[in-house]
Amino acid sequence: MGMSRDSDVVELGGDPIFTYGEKVRSRKHVRNDGTFPGKEVGEILVNKGDIGYVASIGTFLQQFYIYGVDFVDRGYKVGMKGRELESLETDDDREEIP
């Protein structure tokens, strides 16, 4: 039995993992894939362990949630998949959105 591939996963059937304003940490290094203006392709935008806040929630390929994360210390807003992030908040820290 093989491992599941990204193409087999459809996250949009459920709610997003993270919420607006949630404090998160990057679980991996993120390099510019050519979509980040002003930086060279391959240049590191986010280091593993960098802390940011979810500023937007969008979708990609009608399959994944993409979280626009504002890494305030770096001055970058970077789109990341949920598996690339971990929450730094407990359920008590999260506010209910009416």
Brief rundown of the structure:
This protein is mostly beta strands and 98 residues long.
Based on CA atoms alone, the radius of gyration comes out at 14 Å
Biggest sheet, spatial arrangement of strands: 6-5-4-1-7
Note the run of SSEs as H and E. Answer: EEEEEEE
| Domain module count | 1
Name of the CATH class: Mainly Beta
Alpha plus pi helix count: 0
Structural class: mainly beta
Q: Quick check: average pLDDT? A: 84
CA distance, first residue to last residue: 43 Å
How would you describe the shape?
Answer: globular
The counted number of beta strands is: 7
Major sheet: size, sense and barrel closure? 5 strands, antiparallel
Poorly predicted runs of 5 or more residues: none
The CATH architecture is Roll
What kind of assembly state do the chains in view correspond to? single chain
Helix content: under 10%
Q: What percentage of the residues does DSSP assign to strands (E)? A: 35-45%
- From the 3D structure, determine the CATH topology: SH3 type barrels
Supply database-style keywords.
two-stranded antiparallel sheet, 98 residues, 0% helix, 37% strand, single chain, mainly beta, SH3 type barrels, five-stranded antiparallel β-sheet
